[in-house]
User: Which sequence fits this backbone?
């Protein structure tokens, strides 16, 4: 087995965890390669770009937290290669284990005592007035928001071509089941099983208390535009990354992506156990 490693270079302990992981894997006969930025953490190491790393390896291990996992998914791009998150610190929603469990992780790879869980992604298509198109994908969500102004924005939302609502709110989130534990949850959205064939539209602080989250079948197509009466421009971001202004004449289409994120879950681990721990239930 050949394993690729991507680490968060800005997280304390990343270099030590990379070295410890390499040592643990090599003792068990598993070879490794490093991604470009990760290689800079290790003296004398060489690396390869993230997309090539995923193509050349059987599994990609991402060291950091859920934010590092989101960043790595975008840097790798579409791939069928399984991704395992190793959290430096506490266990996250997307990670497979912590940095104290490297031996357990290595043994799971050798014994094949893990499960690959595909997570649906969102494809986002932004069409501008001049006909130009921007495409991307979201692991967690795409968010329209009012930015730093104190005024509400007005958003027209359509489902499969039919008007859903004229929202007057601080913003609107379209989230995957994976993203239902992130910004959408903070905005009052529901928790959705990560393997559900659905996604959710959640308004952020809507002017009307009757505006609630709506769970949709993942075959649905959502279209969003800034309404003419909006008091200020809308800003949009995908997975909390770069924030950009959405021109009033532009339209965002959100639908299920053609590829999935394949996450590794150790067989003795449960998503619901992580949910209880992170949300402090019971």
Assistant:
């Amino acid at each position: 087995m050949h394993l690729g490693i991507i680490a968060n270079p800005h997280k304390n302990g990343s270099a030590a965890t990379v070295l410890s992981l390499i040592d643990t894997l090599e003792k068990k006969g598993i070879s490794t390669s490093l991604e470009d930025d990760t290689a800079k953490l290790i003296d004398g190491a060489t690396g390869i770009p993230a997309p090539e790393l995923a193509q050349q390896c059987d599994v990609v291990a991402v060291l950091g937290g859920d934010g590092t996992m989101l960043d790595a998914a975008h840097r790798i791009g579409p791939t069928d290669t399984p991704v395992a998150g190793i959290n430096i610190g506490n266990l996250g929603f997307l990670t497979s284990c912590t940095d104290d469990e490297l031996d357990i992780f290595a043994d799971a790879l050798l014994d094949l005592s893990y499960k690959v869980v595909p997570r649906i992604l969102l494809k986002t298509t932004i069409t501008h007035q001049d006909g130009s198109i921007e495409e991307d994908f979201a692991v967690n969500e795409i968010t329209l928001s009012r930015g730093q102004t104190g005024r509400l924005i007005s958003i027209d939302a359509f489902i499969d071509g039919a008007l859903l609502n004229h929202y007057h709110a601080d913003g609107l989130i379209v989230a995957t089941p994976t993203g239902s534990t992130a910004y959408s949850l903070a905005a009052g959205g529901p928790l959705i099983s990560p393997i559900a064939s659905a996604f959710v539209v959640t308004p952020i602080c809507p002017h009307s208390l009757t505006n609630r989250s709506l769970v949709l079948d993942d075959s649905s197509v959502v279209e969003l535009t800034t309404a003419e009466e909006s008091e200020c421009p809308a800003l949009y971001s995908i997975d909390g990354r770069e924030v950009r202004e959405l021109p009033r004449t532009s339209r965002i289409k959100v639908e299920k992506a053609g590829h999935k994120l394949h996450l590794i879950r150790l067989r003795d681990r449960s998503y619901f156990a992580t949910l209880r721990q992170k949300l402090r239930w019971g």
Q: What stands out?
A: Residues 121-258 form a domain with the Tumour Suppressor Smad4 fold (CATH 2.60.200.30).
